[in-house]
């Protein structure tokens, strides 16, 4: 409960900085409800005798708005860049800030979600705590689209408008390794 409180305060600050980076008022993303709907998911990756035969977590991009990840000292998280996997070594006391697909849509691709995975390890256990922001419940029934202040003649929308609830239903019901929900809305 205590951790959640601190995470919410940090998220508020991050959403301010992200709003400013988009050239918007600092409270823009939070006033839309982006800083709400935090759920905490903890992962426990046991040591694996044959790590080359499996993965801790398959390749994916986070579907929500933003994720804040705390990891213990065991390396395993990797990000995909130019078709190559790079380790995200844990930094003591540091958190990983991950842009989710919904923030990519809101920003019209100015912010990019990144594909990542977790390898299996001979050493362990690896433990991580992910806090996912999926937005205020009021956003669920509303049309969801790129922030209109970011759209112009030279920067036309790259995504169709949709209802967030449908998107989340897609994310939750899609089989592993199927087309990511974001791809259905690309123009
Ligand atoms: C996730 C995730 C990474 C980790 O839960 O979406 O990417 O280190 N977790 O557990
Ligand atoms: Ni993830």
TrEMBL record:
Residues 36-135 form the Fe2OG dioxygenase domain. PROSITE patterns: FE2OG_OXY (PS51471). One of its GO terms (molecular function) is metal ion binding. InterPro entries: IPNS-like_FE2OG_OXY (IPR044861), IPNS-like_sf (IPR027443), Oxoglu/Fe-dep_dioxygenase_dom (IPR005123), Plant_2OG-oxidoreductases (IPR050295). SUPFAM superfamilies: Clavaminate synthase-like (SSF51197). It holds the Pfam family 2OG-FeII_Oxy. It comes from the Eukaryota. Signal peptide: none annotated. Keywords: Iron, Metal-binding. This is Fe2OG dioxygenase domain-containing protein. It comes from Gossypium aridum (American cotton).
């Amino acid at each position: 409960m205590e951790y959640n409180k601190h995470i919410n305060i940090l998220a508020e600050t991050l959403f301010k900085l992200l709003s400013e980076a988009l050239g918007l008022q600092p409270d823009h993303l939070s006033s839309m409800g982006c800083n709400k709907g935090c759920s905490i998911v903890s992962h426990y990756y046991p040591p694996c005798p044959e790590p080359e035969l499996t993965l801790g977590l398959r390749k994916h991009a986070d579907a929500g708005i933003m994720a804040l990840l705390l990891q213990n000292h065991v390396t395993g998280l990797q990000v995909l860049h130019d078709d190559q996997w790079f380790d995200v070594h844990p930094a003591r006391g540091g958190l990983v800030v991950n842009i989710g697909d919904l923030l990519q849509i809101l920003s019209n691709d100015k912010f990019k979600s990144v594909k990542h995975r977790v390898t299996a390890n001979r050493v362990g256990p690896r433990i991580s705590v992910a806090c996912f922001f999926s937005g205020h419940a009021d956003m669920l029934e509303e049309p969801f689209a790129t922030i209109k202040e970011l759209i112009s003649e030279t920067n036309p929308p790259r995504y169709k408008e949709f209802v967030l609830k449908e998107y989340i239903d897609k994310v939750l019901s899609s089989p592993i390794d199927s087309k990511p929900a974001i791809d259905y809305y690309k123009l």
